[in-house]
Amino acid sequence: MGVFGFSKGTQLTAEGANRYSAPDGASVSVSPKFALHQGELEGANQDAIQGSLNLLMMQRQAEMMQKALMVFHSDFNKTASEDLPRV
């Protein structure tokens, strides 16, 4: 059940995964079945466990990439300091 209603045939434009925009001049009405109650929790459209797992995996991948770049940087500096003066 949605909060807003649009006239029949209104084409909404997708802006990302779960956000839509109505064209200029579209008639918008608030659904009569919608009610907002103070103190209630929002039903999020994201699974908290899957989101936490994705965040952990992304952090670990960033750490691995950082370590790889540090190894590359130290090897490059070693080559530059030891081999280039011989040329």
Which structural traits does this protein have?
2 domains, single chain, elongated, 4 strands, 87 residues, alpha+beta, 11% strand, two-stranded antiparallel sheet, 40% helix
Condensed summary:
The protein has one helix and four strands; from the N terminus they run ββββα. The chain is of the alpha+beta class.
Question: What does this protein look like?
Answer:
With 87 residues, this protein is α+β, with helices and mostly antiparallel strands. Helices cover 40% and strands 11% of the residues. The chain is built from one helix and four strands. It has one helix spanning 48-82, and strands spanning 4-6, 13-14, 20-21, 28-30. Strand 2 (13-14) and strand 3 form a beta hairpin. The longest helix has 35 residues, at 48-82. The radius of gyration is 27 Å and the shape is elongated. The termini are far apart.
Write the topology of this structure.
Elements: E1 4-6, E2 13-14, E3 20-21, E4 28-30, H1 48-82
From the structure provided, what is the oligomeric state, counting identical versus distinct chains? single chain
* Largest sheet: number of strands, sense, barrel closure: 2 strands, antiparallel
User: Can you tell me the number of structural domains?
Assistant: 2
Structural class: alpha+beta
Please state the CA-atom Rg, rounded to the nearest Å.
27 Å
Q: H/E order of the elements?
A: EEEEH
Strand content: 5-15%
Average pLDDT rating: 82
Q: Which stretches of 5+ consecutive residues score pLDDT under 50?
A: none
